[in-house]
């Protein structure tokens, strides 16, 4: 009996290690989440993403769960399809991580600049 392609992908994903780029991206997202919670609760900033701001207004736990799903689900899917285009997936994660850091820094520095009298 032939296995479904998706089942094969899932079984294959369990046998291979997660890319360091995937782990780095996830860690970056966790740091972003933690820093967002800290600066918003300190009154130093607001959450710019309207959807995430709504979650944060419901509480830190709701925000943390929503934020975690917002990056773990896509990263899990990326890891599942990695065998289809391994070099592309790796390069995309590298570029995505650099882009994430750049946008984070621009947003943070822009926010700091607006706080300075």
Unreliable spans are none
What spatial form do the alpha-carbon principal axes imply? Answer: elongated
Helix content: over 70%
Counting H and I runs of at least 4 residues, what is the number of helices?
5
Compute the separation of the termini in Å.
71 Å
Overall mean pLDDT stands at: 87
Structural class: mainly alpha
Total count of strands:
0
- How much of the sequence lies in strands comes to under 5%
User: How many discrete structural domains?
Assistant: 1
| Main beta-sheet strand count, sense and barrel state | none
Note down, in words, how this protein is organized.
The chain is mostly helical. The protein has one domain. Helices cover 79% and strands 0% of the residues. Helix 3 packs across helix 4. The model has no long low-confidence stretch (mean pLDDT 87).
Write the layout of secondary structure elements.
Layout: H1 5-15, H2 20-41, H3 50-57, H4 60-81, H5 86-115
Helix pairs in contact: 2-4, 2-5, 3-4
Short description, anyone?
This protein has 117 residues and is an all-alpha fold.
Structure keywords:
mainly alpha; about 120 residues
């Amino acid at each position: 009996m032939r296995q479904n392609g998706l089942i094969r992908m899932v079984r294959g994903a369990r046998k291979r290690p997660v890319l360091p780029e995937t782990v780095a991206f996830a860690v970056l997202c966790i740091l972003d989440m933690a820093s967002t919670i800290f600066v918003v609760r300190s009154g130093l900033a607001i959450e710019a993403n309207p959807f995430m701001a709504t979650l944060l207004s419901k509480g830190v736990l709701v925000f943390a769960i929503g934020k975690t799903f917002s990056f773990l689900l896509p990263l899990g899917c990326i890891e599942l399809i990695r065998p289809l285009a391994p070099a592309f997936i790796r390069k995309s994660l590298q570029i995505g991580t650099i882009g994430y850091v750049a946008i984070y820094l621009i947003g943070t520095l822009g926010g700091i600049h607006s706080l300075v009298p």
